[in-house]
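$ ./design --mode recover --in tokens.txt
reading tokens...
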């Protein structure tokens, strides 16, 4: 069984699910998941988790980056070239400096309305399904974060195009960003090209294509990205072997037992914060744990009343996701 991550390069015309299905067949396992959908026309980084690493997807570092091509003078139903044209006009009067001047309006925390053709759910149904059925619904807005916008290229013309690098938080729709920029400029705009250059700690420069992955597997040369290296952004706690073994068995450790391996000054800050657990002797990654209220496992056996007596609870170090066993 392979356990770890794959920094996959998603090709154009493939859905994220297509990629997952292909990797499942290549690895002969159902335990493959991804950390964030890419539109079919988009290319770039699609982090995949395999085997036990699927338990760790929620703990990947946040943050995504894209290179987008935005065309002004056009509006469509999908906010890209896939949809029906709603409006088309000349935007030849736009200058690069004008467009770049409005970047400040789109940096920071924004209220964004996702495209009608998106995977957002309303009353348990995907927006794109409702749109295809011709049903009009109110698309819920969301708060997103755009950290940086950097202009890379300007192509003048009747419908000029801007290539821009976007660094953003999770849940941001670049199609919606293009649409809103077009509204601000008074010309309309759509997304005509998109590549994800960074996602959840993975960079496009280190990504692998499906073809390269298949070739590496055929040559028995494939090595997944180790889960421990992907979790490096989390604060670590190194447990000695005896405590590590008990923790891997799911036991709740008394805080006094692990206190020497935690920062006591920051104990209150660590409540319910995921911590990277490693074996002090081997430095092997064992999984994700947390400091929270509970009853140490040893006390449970001695005092059954602790199960119901909240006053008897204290801080413990407990497992959230165990990756390795000892």
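writing sequence...
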């Amino acid at each position: 069984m392979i356990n770890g991550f794959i920094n996959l390069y998603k090709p154009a015309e493939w859905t994220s699910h297509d990629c997952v299905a292909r990797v499942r067949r290549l690895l002969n396992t159902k335990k493959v998941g991804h950390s964030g959908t890419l539109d079919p026309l988009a290319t770039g980084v699609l982090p995949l988790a395999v085997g036990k690493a699927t338990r760790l997807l929620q703990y990947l570092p946040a943050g995504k980056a894209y290179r987008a091509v935005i065309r002004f003078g056009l509006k469509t139903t999908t906010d890209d070239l896939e949809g029906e044209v709603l409006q088309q006009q000349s935007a030849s009067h736009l200058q690069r400096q004008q467009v770049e001047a409005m970047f400040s309006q789109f940096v920071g925390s924004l209220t964004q309305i996702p495209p009608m053709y998106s995977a957002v759910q309303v009353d348990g149904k995907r927006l794109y399904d409702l749109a295809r059925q011709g049903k009009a619904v109110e698309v819920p807005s969301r708060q997103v974060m755009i950290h940086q916008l950097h202009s890379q290229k300007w192509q003048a013309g009747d419908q000029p195009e801007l290539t821009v690098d976007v660094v953003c938080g999770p849940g941001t729709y670049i199609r919606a960003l293009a649409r809103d920029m077009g509204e601000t400029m008074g010309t309309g705009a759509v997304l005509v090209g998109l590549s994800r250059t960074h996602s959840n700690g993975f960079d496009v420069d280190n990504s692998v294509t499906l073809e390269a992955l298949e070739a590496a597997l055929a040559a028995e040369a494939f090595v997944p990205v180790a889960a421990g290296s992907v979790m490096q952004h989390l604060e670590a706690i190194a447990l000695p072997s005896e405590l590590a073994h008990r923790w891997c068995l799911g036991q709740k450790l008394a805080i006094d037992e692990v206190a020497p391996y935690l920062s006591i000054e920051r104990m209150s800050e660590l409540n319910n914060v995921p911590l990277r657990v490693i074996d002090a002797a081997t430095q092997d990654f064992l999984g994700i744990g947390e400091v929270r209220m509970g009853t140490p496992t040893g006390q449970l056996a001695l005092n059954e009343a602790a199960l119901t007596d909240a006053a008897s609870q204290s801080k413990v170090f407990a497992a959230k996701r165990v990756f390795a066993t000892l």
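exit 0
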